[in-house]
Amino acid sequence: MSEQPVNPDITSDDKLWAALGYPIGIIALIMLLMEEKKVRPFIKYHAVQSIAANIIFVLISILLGITVVGALCAPLLWLVFFWWAYKAYQGEYFEIPVITNFIKNQGWV
């Protein structure tokens, strides 16, 4: 994951909303529905990225859930979401391999 420098225009409110979007995916969707939140570039970037990551997480959980490996991997994958939330709360724009490139190529962020 490549890291970009912290932007001084990012408020603590932006950081909090962005961080909450990773472990609680529905909050990311709510952010994109709120007019004052979706115009903030930092919030929009993390909201779209976290929605895509949560969709991939659910699909992987379903595919692996039928095996013992899936039961062991899901909690470990969940910890990754908390790491991403921590990085978002630090005010970082970070890239999740494959997911970030996909959402950028689609023009979503």
Number of helices: 6
Structural class: mainly alpha
- List how many beta strands DSSP finds: 0
Q: What proportion of the residues is helical, as a percent range?
A: over 70%
For the record, give the distance between the C-alpha atoms at the N and C termini, rounded to a whole number. Answer: 17 Å
**Percent of residues in beta strands?**
under 5%
Layout of strands and helices, then pairs:
Elements: H1 12-21, H2 25-33, H3 35-38, H4 41-65, H5 68-89, H6 99-105
Could you characterize the architecture of this molecule?
With 109 residues, the chain is mainly alpha-helical. The chain has one domain. The protein is 71% helix and 0% strand. It contains six helices and no strands. Helix 1 crosses helix 2, helix 1 runs parallel beside helix 4 and helix 2 runs antiparallel to helix 4. The longest helix has 25 residues. It is elongated. It starts with 11 loop residues before the first helix and ends with a helix.
Core attributes:
mainly alpha; 71% helix
Quick summary of this structure?
This protein has 109 residues and is an all-alpha fold.
